[in-house]
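About this split. The held-out portion is used to measure sequence recovery: a designer receives only the structure tokens and must propose an amino acid at every position. Recovery is the fraction of positions where the proposal matches the reference. Here is one held-out target exactly as it appears in the evaluation file.
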């Protein structure tokens, strides 16, 4: 029996708003698509939470024995400044401001995105397609929508006809996001392109390129570029089929992006594209929505280094990963120094227990079996599976791991005796803790891993600081000392000019 048969999964489906039994289209195989970044800037923390959510989901699915095809795109064209089909392409604008080619912008920020994901110990997807690599397919599906009477050409652009779609599909546009189509009509802003549209609610499948627009491709309607929404419909269905198992993304993408995806796919293929929609929730900072205008938005790199004005110090990638896993993906997550400090202590506790556990071995029990303890260990293992299978509840799973960590420390101290439980029981307990820590939740033991690399890096910085002091560059000397302190490395200056360090 496969683990996914023994521990069936339930998922909260955003489309129905209900928790449903997870049943794949093809037994033993999961097709999952997640909206990736628009690579015109550094990946922010909100994005990171979304990608961490689906990294954890894909990890658990694979752990249970599913074959997972995880597709996550790169948006490298077509995402305009306004979701209402107005403004510059975000990448083209960035390229103009920085006096670079658009693909230079794409390359730089894609590399940054991958670096951040590696820091968080996120595994790469099975396939990572780009919007520019699928222009032909986007033109093709647009032609299909025109043929089906669900899109129209206006002045070299092509728009999706929302009213016509609703007439043919039982007024389903707005179902995912809970938006009322009539309210959308009333609240729609008057924009330049609205004159081209039959209806304010219509959205662009293809946009005519203005003379100064750099990113442009030939099409049956003239030179232009694809709309933002069409790329995900194309790439998801190309690699996962016309209907696939899971589509994920941040809560902010429900409308208009995901709503438009559903309409496009349904309109072109005649069937709903996704069985289970999963959305991760937003981040707040000290109880306020994270935003640049409030000055409370920070990048993962600022969080790691502690360089943002709202942070008391830096926090390691694993501490931040642990912190985000402490909350269910559908819950709002609030960042604060107090919460991060608590997470740091919690992470250190369960990772220290992991290191201890790896040193413990049970051979043959020499004492009378402790049946109560045996049952407790067995139940704790089962609870890990039960909570993760219940809508991927990492928060409750971590709570169980804390209980297991307490038992591990008791074994180490002698408060619990290893030789009172069967070897098989202990081996299952040991493997469950290790697997859920490392394989499922992706939590690496930073205190024991990469020690040589860490020490080498610190030594290099110490030598740089020595040279700075010799050169009387005290500003640099102080900066190295303070930066190391912000990440938990305390330097101590000796009388002879030598420096030692300790890790807090």
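Reference sequence for scoring:
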């Amino acid at each position: 029996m496969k683990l996914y048969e023994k521990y069936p999964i339930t998922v909260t489906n955003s489309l129905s708003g209900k928790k449903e039994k997870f049943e794949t289209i093809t037994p033993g195989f999961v097709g999952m698509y997640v909206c990736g970044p628009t690579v015109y800037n550094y990946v922010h923390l909100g994005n990171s939470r979304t990608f961490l959510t689906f990294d954890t989901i894909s990890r658990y699915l694979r752990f249970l024995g599913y074959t997972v095809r995880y597709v996550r795109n790169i948006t490298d064209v077509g995402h305009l400044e306004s979701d209402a089909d107005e403004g510059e392409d975000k990448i083209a604008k960035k390229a103009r401001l920085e006096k670079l080619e658009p693909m230079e912008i794409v390359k730089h920020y894609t590399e940054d995105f991958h670096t951040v994901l590696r820091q968080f110990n996120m595994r790469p997807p099975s396939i990572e397609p780009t919007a520019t690599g699928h222009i032909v397919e986007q033109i093709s599906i647009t032609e299909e929508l025109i043929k089906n009477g669900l899109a129209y050409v206006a002045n070299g652009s092509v728009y999706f006809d929302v009213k016509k779609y609703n007439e043919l599909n039982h007024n389903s546009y707005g179902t995912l996001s809970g938006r009322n189509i009539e309210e959308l009509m009333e609240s729609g802003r008057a924009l330049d392109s609205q004159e081209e549209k039959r209806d304010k609610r219509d959205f662009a499948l293809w946009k005519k390129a203005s003379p100064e627009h750099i990113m442009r491709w030939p099409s049956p309607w003239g030179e232009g570029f694809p709309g933002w929404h069409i790329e995900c419909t194309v790439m998801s269905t190309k690699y996962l089929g016309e209907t696939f198992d899971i589509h994920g993304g941040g809560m902010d993408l429900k409308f208009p992006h995901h709503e438009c995806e559903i309409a496009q796919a349904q309109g072109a293929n005649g069937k709903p594209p996704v069985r289970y929609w999963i959305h991760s929730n937003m981040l707040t900072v000290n109880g306020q929505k994270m935003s640049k205008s409030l000055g409370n938005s920070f990048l993962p790199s600022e969080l790691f280094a502690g360089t943002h004005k709202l942070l008391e110090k830096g926090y390691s990638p694993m501490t931040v990963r642990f912190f985000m896993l402490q909350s269910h993906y559908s819950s709002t997550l609030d960042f604060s120094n107090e919460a991060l400090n608590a997470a740091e202590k919690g992470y250190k506790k369960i990772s220290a227990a992991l290191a201890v556990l790896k040193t413990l071995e049970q051979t043959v029990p020499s004492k009378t079996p402790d049946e109560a303890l045996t049952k407790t260990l067995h139940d704790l293992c089962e609870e890990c599976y039960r909570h993760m299978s219940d809508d991927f509840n990492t928060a409750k799973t971590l709570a169980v791991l804390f209980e297991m960590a307490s038992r591990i420390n008791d074994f180490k101290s002698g408060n619990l005796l290893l030789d009172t439980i069967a070897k098989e029981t202990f081996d299952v307990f040991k493997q469950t803790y290790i697997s859920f820590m490392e394989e499922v939740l992706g939590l690496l033991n930073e205190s024991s891993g990469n020690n040589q690399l860490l020490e080498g890096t610190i030594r290099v910085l110490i030598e740089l600081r020595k040279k700075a002091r010799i050169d009387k560059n005290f500003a640099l000397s102080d900066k190295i000392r303070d930066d190391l302190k912000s990440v938990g490395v305390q330097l101590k200056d000796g009388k002879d000019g030598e420096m030692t360090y300790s890790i807090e």
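Annotator remark: The longest strand covers residues 244-250.
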